[in-house]
Amino acid sequence: MSARPAAGSPTATAAVSSGSQAGAAGLEDAVDLPVDGIQNGTVALVDGQLNAQRDAPVGGQAVLEGVMMRGVSNWAVAVRKPTAEQLSEGEFSPEQAARGEVEVSTFPLDSAMRRHRVLRLPIVRGVVALGGSMAIGFRALEISANAQLPVEDEEEAQAIPRGVWAGTIVVALALAIVLFFLIPVGLTSLIKRQLGSSVLFWLVEGVLRTSLFLGYMLLLSRVGDLRRVFEYHGAEHKTISCFEAGLPLTPANAKRFSRLHPRCGTSFLLVVMIVAIFVFAPIGLPAWYWLLATRVLGVPVIAGISFELIKFAGRNRNRPWVRAVMWPGLKLQLLTTREPDLDQLEVAIAALEAVLELETPGELSAADLVGVEVVA
User: Fold this and answer.
1) Mean pLDDT in residue range 215-237
2) What is the biggest distance separating any 2 CA atoms in the chain, rounded to whole angstroms?
3) What's the number of CA atoms in the CB half-sphere (13 Å) around residue 52?
4) Are 95 and 161 in contact (CB under 8 A)?
5) pTM, whole model, 2 decimals?
6) Contact assessment for residue 103 and residue 146, using Cβ atoms and an 8 Å cutoff
7) What is the Cα–Cα distance from 339 to 258, expressed in whole angstroms?
């Protein structure tokens, strides 16, 4: 099935492969780039790869041997399951698991922003959307992990209380706040007297925080076990960009797009580090306990502002100054994405098509999109 182009996007002008057997599909089956697509800004060629120039209310996340995609009112997880023969044999590599069938699960998405007008306010909506995205993300990870187990083990895994997953989210948030907010301000406080200036204090703290974050991302990119997750991350980006460009969703078409996306969560995290510098600057140099308290209480404000900036960048990605500002975040995605193969793109497309079966983002009204915030 080919996805419907987004509203206002040109229809592809050449025939494409059906993509039913992604591994056998060659890139020669990719649709020829429509000339009018470049002229009206639908796509752009950057470093030999296509980049969509329009934004659509779809996002996603890489999971274990799969991809989660979300739209306005639905989300779906597509996972490549091991074959019965592999499960009976016991040990198998992720590459071998890629030969298995694709299992797709869909779920309704009921945003609290639709029910409460106050949650639609700028900055506030970003905090609410991030909380919802984290909940969906951990649920998607649970589904993908269970899909890699034999049936009897999978049933036991699904019996894990939801409280365990909620606790995992809380612990992850707490560790992030300690590592990227409390440790930087604590270390900078040790030399507060030598600095003798609130301006120098928040500059040093900001540089330290950003350096810790970049070092963490660099270490993460070197973890071998995450390589295939990063490949599925690239598949998610390419698939979303293919849809935003209005081209038919086939692995061959998606392959031609860049694996970098302006609304990526990696870019969002870098924006968080930069925004934090300016949010904390007016606070000055209060007592140490106030410094720690502001770093914790300021996290939702920073996240909300950063979310608005990322969404703005996604909607205005064709403006030169926006591309220049977002360039560092895009380059940072080189650490958290890898080039996917056609089989992985097939999985990402299956997830997005499951969402598109239930809704058409390009045809939604303004009322439908109230409060919708999606990061790719």
Assistant:
1) 93
2) 69
3) 31
4) no
5) 0.79
6) no
7) 9
